[in-house]
Amino acid sequence: MSKSKGRKSARRLTPRQLDILTRIRDFQRNQGYSPTMQELADTLGITKVTVFEHVETLIEKGLLRRAPHKARSLEVTQIAEFPDERSTVFRLAGRIAAGHPVEGIEDAETLDLEALFAGRRRRFVLEVQGESMIDEQIRDGDYVVVEACNNVRNGDTVVAILPGGDATLKQYYREGGRVRLQPANPDFKPIVVNEHEVEVQGVVRGVIRRY
Fold first, then answer.
1. What does the pLDDT average to over 125-151?
2. Known catalytic residue: 61?
3. Is 70 a catalytic residue?
4. Which residue in 113, 114, 116, 109 sits closest to 92, CA to CA?
5. Distances 148 to 75, 159, 178 between C-alpha atoms, Å
6. Strand, helix or coil for residue 158
7. Containing domain of residue 164, as a range?
8. How many CB atoms lie within 10 A of CB 87?
9. Considering the domain boundaries, does residue 24 fall inside one?
10. Pairwise CA distance, residues 168 & 157, whole Å
11. What b/e string do you get for 33-49 counting C-beta neighbours within 10 Å, with b at 16 or more?
12. Confidence band of 77 (pLDDT split at 50, 70, 90)
């Protein structure tokens, strides 16, 4: 089976199948050998028959291998992919105070950037050029995560298309029949246009910065 085909199969896993696959992976990492069907059943609180049926499905999808007549022969294949191993998932090592120092606490949580910025509407990313929004902690070279929509509230930071076709990142304020696109930097002047002359493409939902 090709790796691309295996990835498509992995995306169609049920929550239970993914749970079993993940538990096999974790068991192997922690113990150095594979769990038995009975151990999986006991851990999951389901019958051994149910575990066997899911394991057979995972084998058919190419995500597991099993040697016949051996109790601990389950092996996760290289094409298996796990949500907690995506490149957008980072280990959350703890929390750090930006004010008064606190005791460092380490835990096993993760931060999934894909899930953090997920939403029902389409989202896209733009690289920021310029310093007009620095007082909103949006700097030149940052990336803004934008939710595509045109229904905005006063004070939202938006991506707006001006009458000449230029795009700008500003705070949106509707004032009568006009719109004020307010920068967050005193060195820049607000842009004021008629409401029907500006097109809002989306609202900023997050900022990503690299150092």
1. 90
2. no
3. no
4. 109
5. 43, 9, 22
6. strand
7. 123-208
8. 7
9. yes
10. 10
11. ebbbbebbbeeeeeeee
12. confident
Beta carbons of 183 and 132 less than 8 angstroms apart: yes
Are 65 and 11 in the same domain? yes
Band (137; pLDDT cuts 50, 70, 90): very high
| Count of structural domains, the chain | 3
Q: Residues 9, 34, 61, 170: which is the catalytic one?
A: 170
Continuous H helices in 99-182: 113-116
Same domain, 33 and 100: no
CB atoms within 10 A of CB 180: 15
The pairs formed by 152-155 with CB atoms below 8 angstroms and a separation of 24 or more are 152/200, 152/203
Residues 68 and 90 in one domain: no
| Tokens encoding 55 | 């394991």
- 108 and 151 co-located in one domain: no
Residue 87's pLDDT band, with cuts at 50, 70 and 90, is low
CATH number at residue 197: 2.10.109.10
Q: What's the pLDDT score for residue 157? A: 95
- Residue 118 forms part of a structural domain: no
Active-site hit among 5, 87, 132, 189: 132
Token pair for residue 169? 């990142």
CATH number at residue 62: 1.10.10.10
Say if residue 108 is in the same domain as residue 130. no
The pLDDT of residue 41 is above 80: yes
Which residues, in sequence order, are bridge partners of residue 179? Answer: 174, 193
Q: What is the pLDDT of residue 39?
A: 92
pLDDT over 50 at 50, yes or no: yes
